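During the reporting period, our protein records have gained a C-alpha cell line. A sample record is set out beneath this paragraph:
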Amino acid sequence: MTDRERLIWLHQHLVKVHGESPLKGYMHGLRDMIYETPPDRDTVGNVCTMRSNKVQDEIAELERRNLI
C-alpha cells in the first residue's frame, strides 16, 4: 500500500467509522496531503504491487466527488 492509499484509507475511516465531517478544516488538510502525495510513494519500504480493491474504490469515490 502506498502512502497516498494509506492517507485515503485514514480519511475514509475517519468519515465512515468515526463520523467525522469531511467539511472540517483538518479533513481539508488531509485531502490536500492526499492530493500532493505522489501515487507511487511508499515510505514504509514495502512496495506493494497489488492494491486493495477497497482502496481503489475509495480513491475513485474521492476523485468522483472532486475531493482529491
